[in-house]
Structure formats: C-alpha cells, structure tokens
From TrEMBL:
The chain crosses the membrane at residues 17-36, 273-297. Its EC number is 2.7.13.3. Residues 441-681 form the Histidine kinase domain. Residues 118-209 form the CHASE domain. It is an enzyme of class 2 (transferase). Its main location: membrane. This is histidine kinase. GO terms for cellular component: plasma membrane. It comes from Roseovarius bejariae. InterPro entries: CHASE_dom, CHASE_sf, HATPase_C_sf, HATPase_dom, His_kinase_dom, HisK_dim/P_dom, HisK_dim/P_sf, Sig_transdc_His_kin-like_C. Gene3D superfamilies: 1.10.287.130, CHASE domain, Histidine kinase-like ATPase, C-terminal domain, PAS domain.
Length: 688
C-alpha cells in the first residue's frame, strides 16, 4: 500500500485527479437520468405490448374455441336432421336415445327440441324440458318470425341472445328438416331442430378452457357495415376501454370479441426503482472504468506489455488496423486462422496486401474464380463495417468476422471460429426443411383418401343419384321382365360394391399413414416394445410376399424369393412390418422387371437382400432416405405416394433387433437393400 500513492502521483498531476473524479460523477448522474428514463419508458412500452400480445393470443384462442363450438352445433343439428329425415316417426324415447350421445359432447346445450311445423313435439333432456312439449312458436312473438323464416327459406340460423320461455338467456340454432314428401314438392320445411345453447355456460366454458381469470370479455354483433349492432354478452363498457378485438363470422353475421385485462393496461413499469439503482450502479462502474482507462492511458509504458499478453490469451482472433489500414497488432489466434497468408501478417503491412497474399494462395474458398471482384467487396465491407459477416476458408473452417471503426479511423476486428455452429445450423435447417416437406406431403396424403371416403360415402348415403339406381327404378316402374330387373339390380350391386371397395382401400391407406406416424412417435419416445420369440425367417418373408404379390402382379412385376430356413429370436410382427416397408417400396418404384429376395448367412448373422430393377437412388441420397420425413421426391404431386416414414421406421426396427440396413443403388439401375440380423440375439433394446 505504500507504493500506490507514489504511483498515482506519477500518473496524475496533483490537480488532475479531483477534476477527473468530478467529471466522472457529473457524467454518471447525467447518463443515469437519461438512461433510466429511457429504460423505464421502454419497459412501460414493452409491458403494454406484452399485455396486448397476451390479450391478443387469448382472444384468438377464444374466437377459435367459439368457432369450433358453433361448428359442433351445426354438426349435431345435421346429424339429428339426417336421422329424423330417414325416420320421421321417432317417439320421445327413440328421440332421446338418438340425441343424448350427440348433445353430451357439448355441455352448453341445454335443450335439443324438434318441432313439427310450429309445434314442439320432441325434446331432450325430457325431465328438464317437458314443459316445452306442445309449445307453439306462433304464440311466442319474439321467436315466431325467426322460426317462420327458417321454415320458409330452409336456411340454418344461429340467433340470440334470446330470453327463453322457461327462463334464462340463450343462443338458439335452428335447422330445418324435411319429410320425404316436402323434399319432393320444394315447399317449406317440415319442421325445425332447435339447439338451445346456454349463453353464460358457453362463455364460461370457453373462458375456463382458454381465457385467464384476469381478463374482462364482452361480445357484440356487427352489422353489414362492421358497426356495433347489439350486445351479446358481458359489460358493454369493455369496448370503450381499448380492448383487443377479434371478429368471429357466423351464418347470421359477425360477432366481435372484446378482451382487456381486468386491472386495465399497464400505466407504469414494475421495475422503476430497480432501473434507477441498476443504471446508477452501471454508470458508476463505467465512470470508474473510464478513470481506470485514463490511468492506463497515462501509464501506457507500464501496461502495454500486459495488454498485449491479455489480447494474445483470448480464445478468438483479434487484429487492429490504423486509419491507413496498416496492421498495428494481431494476436496469435488471428495468425493461426490465416496460415496461408501468415507471412504477410506483420505490423505495417496493409490490409489489402494481406488479402492479396491469401488470394494468391487460394485461402478464400468463395473468391475462387472471381478474385478481383471478391477483393473489392471485402475491402468495402472492411472500410464500412456494419453487421458481422461469415467467411469460409480453404481448409473448410468458417469464421465470423466482426469489425468496428473507431472515431480516429482505426479498425478493430475479431475472428471467431463458428464452424461447429455453422454445421449445426445447416443440419438444423435441413431437418426443418425435411419436416416442412413432410407436412406438405402428409397433408396431401391424408386429404386424398379422406376425400375418396367422404365422396363415396355421400353417394352411398344418397343412392337415388346413381345411374344404376335410376335404372332399377325405371325397370320396376315400367314393369320390365324379371331378367331385366335382375340385371339392373346386379349393376346397382356392382356399382355399390365398387364404391365400398374404394372406401375400404382409401381407409386402409389412411390407416397405414396414421400407423406410420404413431410408430414414429413411439420410436421417438422410446416406448416401442419388442415381443421376441423364435420365428422362421423364411415363413416371415413368405407371408410378406403373399401379401404383396397382388400389388406386384397389378404392375406386371415378378416377385421372387429364395430365403434360407433359419430360426431367429425376434419380434415376428415388427420384422414383418420392416420387410413390408422395404419390399413394398421396391414394388412401388419399379415399373418393369421385378423384385428378388435372397439370403445368405454365417455362424453369427444372416443377410437378407432385396433387389429391384426400379428407378434407383442417387448416391447423395443413400443416407438421407433412412431419416424421418425424408423422401427423394418431396413434391405433393409426385407419382408415388407416401409420408417418408417407412424406411426410418424400418431402420429403427432393425436396429432394435441388433441389426443394420444399407442400400446400394444408382439412378436408373435399380436398388439393393441389405438387412443384416444376428442369428442369436443376446439383448434387445426395449424388449419386453
């Protein structure tokens, strides 16, 4: 401690130190005031923005939930209508049995009533709504116009809020239904199916599922000009307090949801005092550091060697260039990155000369073939630094270059090796692209069979539109001979059977896709189990070829196997699944020739080979095809369907058995997949 005052006296003149302290304190107070006010203003703005974003998310979820409920009401009404139109004479008990499982899916429905014309003759639940039996809508002025309009127009209407006869407020969805004779003459509907939806229960259920307790909500109608046209729920003053708004279209107009925090929007930041304290401490520390830096500047001769040593010890490359772009200092790490131009990295040499040396040695990968153009671009970025840039070297490494220019014109630059980060990012981007491709493919793959199932189901639901059905009707009406009627019935039977087969085929395709996705999820969660037992490999292969031989025959392909009679300890079901994936793919991508399955074995393992004469796979795709969500052709309009999960699942199954699967292929020359399995397995992953 004796030497410290003497050292300060050497660094400062007697009057300099008090002046420096005064300046530091003044700047600290000034900057603390400015910065703390700005930070608090930013925090308040951020708090308000976060509150608005939270309310927006909640409003969006509430809107979606209400939309789903409205759609569910339409589905329930349509289901009731479909049965009633086919069986118009349901008694009360039969009506209850029909409606109960449908209504129980939506707790907000308190009554599902049917009217014959204007008079209610069926209700559910009966116990709480039996007073409504015999109710004539013509005696209810508030409801009669809407009921009459639905009967006349045949349109479904969601009305409300309406004060109910039995008490309470509700929305009512009214859907018409038609008896067979009313459908044919084009007159008004036979009656109405009315779903009484408890308004408060619907909103409470939605808020319980999606709305936090600290939010105030209100709903109102909008007219055709998007102006308020009546309150549906809640306190109308919510709409006067700058709420978050979300529109919800319905078949009778637009509802608007208003949502705001119960306590109002934030008025002041929560950390005001803490910001002042932290800012004061930060600027106090900064003032202290400035004094320390001034001390270092005044004692440069003492600290210069320490500074150089410190710079050399950092993990990243560092270089300093003066205002004429001459090198002042470069640490050892910086030199180690640029080994090819290392001889040119010395103090006094210009940045341009160092770059030219590297270009002559082929050091910069991206400059090959355009050296002069690249040089000018690099010099421009160096002289006007802004955002960090990435640079690839000839040895495969990636550097992140961050440069800054001082007021005096000096340029300080850092070089950080980001090779691992770059490779990881590229891998992550590739995985993300693969998942995006998978989502595009699976959306198409699921939609196609669903469209087929729904389309043919609609035909089966309404047979009267089928030409074959019309022939049967015509044959019966005209009193054709029995043989003619029999032929018409046979044609109708064949047409219905064809539709049924297509529905079954599309359903099997859809089930296969869903099973692949579920299997993939089980493998990801490591919850898949192998149930191992002794099984004959030849029998497994034979069952697979038996399953796929029709598929091969339809394409005119041969499907042959020559597999040894060998006993394995394995999960026969999973092994069969893996073989179906590989052999099924071989058939799918083969147009002429065939698929050949063979085997060979030694004491420890057996190799099963599946060879096809198909289109083949490029060498760059050999590894990728075994990754999940990956397909060589990812276009949703591609000729061969699939979700890109089959080979990934196959590899997981084979790996769990302690084996491996590889591919040998080239474009245009077919593919050979080789599955290697141990004859005797000591331990199986996840085995039960």
């Amino acid at each position: 401690m004796v030497g410290k005052p003497d050292r300060l006296n050497k660094v400062f003149k007697p009057r300099d130190f008090p002046i420096a302290v005064m300046i530091a304190v003044t700047l600290t107070i000034l900057m603390t005031t400015i910065t703390a006010n700005k930070i608090n203003a930013f925090l308040l703005r951020d708090a308000r923005q976060e509150a608005v974003q939270d309310a927006s998310r909640e409003a969006e979820m509430i809107a979606r939930s209400l939309q789903r409920e409205i759609i569910k009401f339409e589905v329930i009404a349509h289901a009731i209508r479909s049965v009633i139109e086919r069986h118009p004479n349901l008694n009360q008990q039969e009506y209850q049995q029909l409606v109960k499982p449908l209504v129980e899916t939506s707790p907000s429905i308190i009554n599902a009533a049917r009217s014959d014309g204007f008079i209610v003759d069926r209700v559910y639940p009966f116990e709480s709504n039996q007073a409504a039996i015999g109710l004539d809508y013509r005696d209810i002025p508030d409801q009669f116009p809407a009921v009459n309009e639905v009967l006349r127009s045949g349109d479904t209407k969601l009305l409300g809020p309406i004060d109910l006869v039995q008490g309470g407020t509700a929305f009512i969805q009214r859907s018409p239904y038609y008896a067979e004779e009313d459908q044919n003459n084009g007159g008004p509907a036979t009656g109405i199916i009315s779903l009484i939806i408890d308004r408060d229960r619907l909103i409470a259920q939605t808020m319980q599922n999606h709305g936090p307790g600290h939010m105030d909500i209100a709903l109102r109608k909008l007219n055709e000009r998007a102006r308020p046209a009546g309150l549906l729920y809640g306190d109308p003053t919510v709409f006067n307090l700058h709420p978050v708004l979300r529109n919800l279209p319905t078949d009778t107009g637009t509802w608007q949801i208003g949502l705001r925090p119960s306590t109002g929007w934030p008025q002041e930041p929560g950390a005001s005092l803490a910001v002042w304290v932290a800012t004061a401490l930060a600027y106090g520390l900064l003032g202290f550091l400035l004094l320390a830096l001034w001390t270092m500047y005044r004692s440069k001769s003492i600290t210069e060697n320490q500074l150089r040593s410190a710079i050399n010890s950092i993990e990243d490359g560092f270089a300093l260039y003066d205002k004429h772009d001459r090198l002042v200092f470069a640490n050892d790490k910086y030199r180690s990155y640029y080994t090819l131009s290392g001889d040119a990295i010395y103090p006094g040499n210009t940045f341009e000369n160092i770059l030219r040396t590297g270009l002559e040695e082929g050091q910069y990968d991206e400059a090959i073939g355009r050296e002069e153009e690249w040089l000018q671009e690099r010099l421009a970025a160096h002289r006007n630094p802004c955002e960090p840039v990435e640079q690839k070297l000839a040895d495969g490494r990636w550097l992140q270059i961050a440069e800054t220019r001082s007021p005096e014109g000096n340029t300080a630059g850092f070089r950080v090796d980001v090779t691992e980060l770059k490779l990881a990012r590229e891998k992550a981007e590739a995985a993300n692209r693969a998942k995006t491709d998978f989502l595009n493919i699976i959306s198409h793959e699921l939609r196609t069979p669903l469209t087929s199932v729904i389309g043919y189901a609609r035909f089966l639901e309404n047979l009267s539109v089928l030409p074959a059905f019309k022939k049967v009707q015509d044959s019966i009406a005209k009193g054709h001979e029995a043989d003619a009627q029999k032929r018409a019935l046979t044609e109708l039977h064949n047409e219905i059977a064809n539709m049924s087969n297509r529905i079954a085929s599309s359903s099997d395709h859809l089930l296969g896709l869903i099973n692949d996705i579920l299997d993939r999820a089980q493998f990801e969660a490591e919850t898949i189990h192998l149930y191992t037992a002794q099984c004959n490999l030849r029998d497994i292969v034979k069952s697979v070829t038996k399953t796929l031989e029709l598929k091969a025959a339809e394409k005119g392909l041969t499907l042959e196997s020559d597999v040894s009679d060998v006993i394995l300890l394995a999960d026969a079901k999973r092994l069969r699944q893996a073989l179906i994936n590989v052999i099924g793919n071989a058939i799918k991508f083969t147009e002429t020739g065939g698929v050949y399955i063979s085997s060979e074995q030694d004491e420890n393992q057996i190799r099963l080979t599946i060879r096809d004469t198909g289109c083949g796979i490029g060498a760059k795709d050999h590894e990728d095809i075994f990754d999940q969500f990956v397909q060589v052709d990812t276009s949703v309009t591609r000729r061969n369907s699939g979700a890109g999960l089959g080979l990934a699942i196959t590899r997981e199954i084979i790996n769990l058995h302690g084996g491996d699967i590889t591919v040998d292929s080239e474009l245009g020359n077919g593919s050979t997949f080789t599955i290697t399995l141990p004859v005797r397995l000591c331990k199986l992953g996840y085995a039960a």
